[in-house]
């Protein structure tokens, strides 16, 4: 029997969990495309904001001193707990380590293509059965683009990567600096300023 290829867009918590359960099914194999060089998705901290060195949008909203607002006991995977420790509310680096450990434990790394950016997804209709999926990917390092077909596809690219900016009447008249919390990293650039949140 031919193995079914299941594409997974994103190597964050949802993408890793999806890949782990795809691997547990003996007739399926995952292929995970992750834009960055690490697993973790939004938990991968960078001091940069806006766009990265290659012009791709920065996915993460992590700031340097962030601790979780949910206890780790709630954030864990049912089959893989966080390491025991004193605090339930952990620094973002602990969540990152947890996700790396999860990927290692379930042997997910061989199935992850780091530095690969999904450009486009299209359904491929068949005469019988569900559609397949044509996925166009760019290898960020080589800048080469290729297309592959998957039997199924899971989009696990998160919902915190695109900031929601409400319309505020006459905001364009404000002459000061405006930024979204998605781009906040640390407080030093605000020293001596009056800040409205």
UniProtKB/TrEMBL annotation:
It comes from the Eukaryota. SUPFAM superfamilies: FAD/NAD(P)-binding domain (SSF51905). PANTHER family: DIMETHYLANILINE MONOOXYGENASE. This is Flavin-containing monooxygenase. Belongs to the FMO family. It holds the Pfam family FMO-like. GO terms for molecular function: flavin adenine dinucleotide binding; N,N-dimethylaniline monooxygenase activity; NADP binding. Keywords: FAD, Flavoprotein, Oxidoreductase. InterPro entries: FAD/NAD-bd_sf, Flavin_mOase-like, FMO-like.
